[in-house]
Amino acid sequence: MGMTPKEFFESFVEGNLEDCQEDPGSVRRAFNAAISASHLADQWHTFNQRHNPNLVSGFKDIGQLVEHLSQATSGAFRDVRSIANAYKHLYTDSSSRHGARSTIDSSGAITSVEQLGGSEVVKVEEEYGDTSSKVVFTRRDGSTLDFLPVLEKVVDYWRSSIA
Question: Which of 3, 4, 20, 90 has its Cα between 20 and 30 A from that of 133?
Fold first, then answer.
């Protein structure tokens, strides 16, 4: 049968969230968490197409599921997925098949993800303070968001949906 979505969630998504909570300023941990939280959508969709087709019948493809998840998390899932895709594909410009719905174009350097156009998230970077650091990202509208609360919103959604 392979790994179920719940097993994937417990094995990867929750552990990566815990890593981010332990070190909220680590861009590496943020990328790893974004990847697992994002790819759970692919895993959930593919697994259920095979084993629970009625569960996914409302989503004709992964794009519809991504849109549903984005709406259900007030856009948090779209941000997390865009960060994951920029890291995975290096470049996700709007002309590529990987970047058609992405809000980030490139993972850039280890400390930042810079967006060249066509989406909401402009960059992800580390901010260092006197006693702590955090990963933040800036959307096209200029708003800056802390990564950890966005990730937590996505993980909370998955937790309530899979449990």
Answer: 90
